[in-house]
Design a protein that fits this description.
Mean pLDDT of chain A: 91
Oligomer: homodimer
Distance between the termini of chain A: 45 Å
Order of helices and strands of chain A: HHEEEEEEHHHEHHEE
DNA sequence: TCCTTTTTGTTGTAAAAACAACAGACTTGT
DNA sequence: ACAAGTCTGTTGTTTTTACAACAAAAAGGA
């Protein structure tokens, strides 16, 4: 458990909190560690949540498969990101999507009630965590809205440009790796893989970008 | 100002707070009222926010126009809903979209810092508001994810079914009105209006639904 | 009321995407 | 090293969507 404190320290939720403070909070917040193999389900659609979770190792996909087997990847969760936080409100509906390990992953569970109910004595920094929680969910919110903007684009090409540009900006370089293979990227952009591959090739021919596997360079 | 207290009382943010408590908080939170005519901009892309806003009259669209004049409506804000809350975090980027009055509207502005910084004495209920704020943004989050699910559908027909089903569920009836005209619905679903109109007609012929103007009935 | 503007549905055509099928490159495990 | 499986790009076909243009219906204003 303690070995994840350095990771937690870097998260938005525990920003500005000292290591030993985090350690004491782990007890107060009822922290638990779970391990998942690639492909395993962390959460399933329809579940009721009473925990807030932080990914401390690996990578997760928040996704949904429809009746015909079409998969849609709504979000990707990377190291240090929080998830599940939107479903702990008292009148919240059950989880809308599945959460699946995209690679071997480690997740920490925290008792949600303990987080949002500021405790009386022990944890001096609890108030700060509540505020951090709000800032974290704010960031998540903006992330989803950005994704929605990608999806508002009408053509595969525009969606690709929109997404790849964001990645280039985020990684602060015109050369960057993405955390998806082709099929996953297609599922993430809600388009057909072969059509997308085709479009990528066209764009390369036109000199808009270069790529190899999951590495891209915008020109 | 005081005339909006009954509206505020029904919002998620002020849930469980007595009328006179709200009244005193209006001062503490630096509340201001602004009026907008249909089509007027409430906020513009790129702005930095230091307020949380609640719509107390009318209807707003959170939207974006691209270079070629294609409009995308990302969200609709109805009476009593909060907005802007995701952009007040210290390291938040500027606003990603425009906020426009879809009809004559009234908006209340609250000082964001005052809300998230629990004040010392006067407002006994301030702690509750902070918690409400978290639950409100949680709900907003789920709303955006639901919209993302609609958009994950590959065809216009599926998007329509996905959106209309949600409305039917939300309004708890198979007959319901939607808050969009055809062009706005198309902008909201990120598709072409005429193609969508066409698809609606086909669906009506096939007996899937009935409609007239903005009133729909699922069969 | 009449005129103007907006909204909606319809049609035909061009463009784009989905779908299916396959081959070659690359991985992985034995 | 080999076999099995996965990933990626490519092609041809079918389906769907976008686009443009227009007419009818409805709404709004003078």
């Amino acid at each position: 458990m303690k070995k994840y404190i350095p990771v937690l320290k870097k998260t938005k939720l525990f920003a500005g909190i000292a290591n030993d403070e985090i350690a004491s909070m782990l007890l107060c917040l009822d922290a638990q560690v779970h391990h998942y193999k690639k492909g395993e389900y962390v959460l399933r659609e329809g579940e009721h949540l009473s925990n807030i979770m932080i990914l401390v190792g690996g990578r997760l996909h928040i996704q949904k498969d429809d009746y015909w087997g079409n998969r849609s990847i709504l979000e990707q969760i990377s190291m240090g990101e929080m998830f599940g936080e939107a479903y702990i409100a008292p009148e919240s509906e059950p989880l809308l999507n599945d959460v699946v390990a995209a690679e071997d992953s480690v997740v920490m569970f925290f008792n949600a009630k303990q987080i949002i109910t500021t405790c009386s004595s022990a944890c001096r920094f609890h108030t700060m965590v509540v505020q951090n929680l709000f800032f974290s969910i704010s960031e998540k919110n903006r992330k989803v809205v950005r994704k929605l903007s990608h999806m508002s684009k009408r053509s595969i090409r525009e969606k690709l440009i929109s997404y790849l540009s964001e990645e280039a900006t985020r990684q602060n370089s015109s050369s960057f790796a993405i955390p998806f293979n082709r099929q996953q990227l297609a599922d993430f952009l809600f388009v057909d893989r072969s059509a997308m591959s085709n479009e990528l090739s066209k764009m390369r021919k036109e000199g808009l970008l270069e790529f190899e596997r999951n590495c891209f360079k915008l020109l």
